[in-house]
Amino acid sequence: MNRREFMVMAAATGVVRAGWSACGLADVRRAAGDSARPMSRNRRPYCGIDWATARQIRGTTHVHCTNQADLDEILKRIEFLTLSNYYPSAPWYPLSKMTENYWRVHHDFPVMVNGRRVEGPFDWNRIVGKWIKELPAELQRQYPFKEGKKLFRPLPEGVLEAPNAEHHAFLLEDGRNHGHLHMNSPGSMFSSGTFDQGQKNRFQTGTRGGYHFGSGELWKTAVDRMIAGLVYTDGGGVTINHPVWSGYDRNLILKILDHDPRVLGMEVIEGGGVNGEAYWDWVLSTGRQCFGFFVPDHAIRQKSGTFGVNVLVTPERTAHACLKAYRDGNFYGAKRGLNELKFTRIAFDGETATVEAETDKPARLVVITGCGVVKEEKCATSVKWTMEGVYGWSAPRKNAHVYVRIKAYALDGSGEELFSQPFMLD
After folding, report:
1. What is the distance between the alpha carbons of residues 414 and 396, in angstroms, rounded to a whole number?
2. Where does the pLDDT of residue 305 fall: very low under 50, low under 70, confident under 90, or very high at 90 and above?
3. Which of 70, 206, 340, 416 could cysteine-pair with 201, CB 3.0–4.6 Å?
4. Could you tell me the fold of the domain covering 345-426?
């Protein structure tokens, strides 16, 4: 653990655990170097929530933004800001610190150099200066690197923010680089990679200096570092990004989820409308709790109106409460996130295996389990379903419900769709 990560962890250990009822939450164990690690992901989301007084705060865990115009677009929907930029994969947090060329002159975290982890800080002017005269004139004009003006206006009053970044270029167990394996770490100060335009290597820091543009470490090691960098021991975690775009081997998803319960889940709506529900339902059918995340990625201006929003249900309006909602699964997904339709209650009775949901407007409500759609209300503001028959969690099998989740489709022509988190039926 480097000095920067140590400082983050030292601050986090002083945090008082916050929340509502302990109902349904995972058991917690404490071990040296692994403070407040949950035994499993919460298999009973929303338990203990007072929906009448709860705040519904819109956020998203995977969105790229490097200029004010894009931020203005994002803030039409998002109240809890966790930007996930890369090159380098470092938190743009707080946003008020970000300036032109910030990471070219303020790189204070480790980088993999020729296969070895080297501590920061890095003086890119000194490093690139060794070969700058051999680079194209367009790049020479950018040298020496100087910090420029602030990139953003102050955030509107009431907008919350927390650290996050999108990490990539992980190694698999056989030493190969998985080019499409990307993960986010909402709530973590962990940083990886360099400024040098990713694989384009424009300033040749990779080819000449051996500086790795991304993580460059075994994915397990990188996940552990993301978790070590969490600013709250009971909030935030790691997400597996865009399974459809990445085309993951499904067993790799299971391995990553099984590595640590603070790997919270996977993206379901991604990149402006791509739907990964087939991946999600397959993972859930194995009995593993896996929270679903709803994100725009780069597609914040999608003409269809699809965006990808996580609606966090919290007892208070703080960044800590929002990150804890992510950890506990106390949020639901919205395809558009413009408040055109809301869940006003989602509940599960573990004694009778009964799930219920209510919406603020009439909607088409669908109950989904490992057996498929088991109930549908074509125009209603509530739905209720009680499991009957065989179910199990150890492996998918015929007639096994395994889990239950609810979708709501707006009937007003807006195209809004809502997705509850799943309840596991063991």
Report:
1. 35
2. confident
3. 206
4. Immunoglobulin-like (2.60.40)
| HSE (side-chain half, CA atoms, 13 Å) at 391 | 19
Sign of the torsion formed by the C-alpha atoms of 343, 20, 263 and 367: negative
Residue ranges covered by each domain of the chain: 3-339, 345-426
- Do the beta carbons of residue 383 and residue 356 sit within 8 Å? yes
Pairing between β-strand 291-294 and β-strand 263-270 as defined by DSSP bridges: parallel
**3 state DSSP class of 94:** coil
Instruction: Answer whether 205's CB lies under 8 Å from 118's CB.
Output: no
Amino acid at 52: A
Residues in contact with 248: Cβ distance below 8 Å, sequence separation at least 6, in sequence order: 180, 181, 240, 279
Assess contact for 370 and 413: CB atoms under 8 A: no
53, 74 contact by CB (below 8 A): no
**Eight-state DSSP code of residue 97:** G
Structure tokens at 319: 């960044």
Identify whether the C-beta of residue 308 lies closer than 8 Å to the C-beta of residue 337.
Answer: yes
Q: Residue 73 is encoded by which pair of tokens?
A: 């677009």
Class for domain 3-339, per CATH?
alpha beta
pTM (2 decimals)?
A: 0.91
Contact 49, 330 (CB under 8 A): yes
